């Protein structure tokens, strides 16, 4: 039963993400959660709900139409849901991005406690 509840929680997460409802989305996390994300640097970084709201508010300012499209959801055991998705958006200069991403969510007591995200974080070569 927990597995389907975890999948429902993650589907709700992506629905809120796509609506840019950052406060509600951050409420799906534990008060402080562990993040692994190339944009936050190497290793595991603890983030509060307020920091999560700030990060995604900034993202939607840079990419007002940012959206995630789920490719596949893989429930894994009692505490994990792995999601493969494509993130897309348009920058103010009208350049577009399309980025395949994989996130491993850890869920405990109905809240997201871990968000380990993997994607190609390449930098454009300097000219």
Automatic annotation (TrEMBL):
InterPro entries, sorted: NTF2-like_dom_sf, SnoaL-like
Pfam family, one: SnoaL_2
Ranges of residues in domain SnoaL-like: 11-113
Name of the protein in its database record: Nuclear transport factor 2 family protein
Source organism: Pararcticibacter amylolyticus
